[in-house]
Design a protein that fits this description.
The protein has about 220 residues and is an alpha+beta fold. Helix content is about 40%, strand content about 15%. Helix 1 runs antiparallel to helix 2. It is globular and about 50 Å long. It starts with 11 loop residues before the first strand and ends in a 16-residue tail after the last helix.
Length: about 220
């Protein structure tokens, strides 16, 4: 297993993904989604984690986090998943029946430049890509919807971005990605490969023992 990167605070964002065991439904009712969003709000208050973007999907979730401190990501995601597992079992009256999640979360570091915007777009476009809505901002359970409402209360636990979004951000999110963009991000999802320009990716891989994530492998399945 490659070592997890440990970098100075503020240098990196992270895309984080986890899904229900067996790809079973994780969110079935509005209350299921609301419970998880309340946990994100608690994580923001408790850990001061910067939640820049997110999307909750029926079987999994995506977070784009921008940690403040070195090494805090694993602790925060562990708290989120354990807390959600406990509340999920209580809500569904399934305590003691086994795991909710398939295992350890997947994550990859993201360079905080234009590559951050590429990943943010990927995250906020998930429901549209899955054809759950016709416009990305219409998916109630993501950060784009919250920001589109123009209500400060809805965005209280969302943070500013390390890279300002362009003025036409909503239009950009609704525009399809290229096949190359999707392939590159999905490889990073599957392998934990740093996401940035080639020189930066190689530097991060060499510095933090992630060289194995750069070796070619078969085409990943969609996420």
């Amino acid at each position: 297993m490659p070592r997890r990167p440990r970098l100075a605070a503020g240098n990196l964002a992270y895309h984080v993904l986890n899904r229900r065991v067996g790809r079973l439904p994780l969110f079935e009712t509005p209350s299921d989604y609301i419970v998880f969003e309340s946990i994100l709000a608690e994580a923001h208050t408790e850990f001061r984690i910067r939640i820049t973007a997110y999307c909750l999907m029926p079987t999994h979730w995506h977070l784009l986090l921008w940690p403040r401190q070195d090494g805090e990501l694993s602790e925060i995601i562990r708290w989120i998943t354990v807390t959600h597992t406990q509340r999920w079992h209580v809500q569904h009256e399934t305590t003691g029946t086994g795991p909710v999640y398939q295992g350890r979360f997947k994550s990859f570091p993201v360079k905080t430049d234009e590559h951050f915007l590429t990943v943010a777009r990927y995250v906020e476009r998930n429901a549209l890509r899955a054809k759950l809505v016709r416009q990305a901002e219409n998916w109630r359970w993501n950060s784009l919807w919250r920001r589109a409402q123009g209500d400060a209360k809805l965005t209280a636990w969302l943070s500013d971005w390390p890279v300002p979004p362009p003025r036409n951000w909503m239009m950009r999110v609704n525009h399809p990605e290229t096949g190359e963009e999707l392939e590159t991000i999905r490889v990073s999802v599957q392998r934990g490969r740093p996401f940035g320009d080639e020189a930066w990716v190689n530097r991060m891989a060499n510095r933090f023992g992630l060289e194995s994530t750069l070796r070619p492998r078969g085409r990943p399945k969609g996420s």
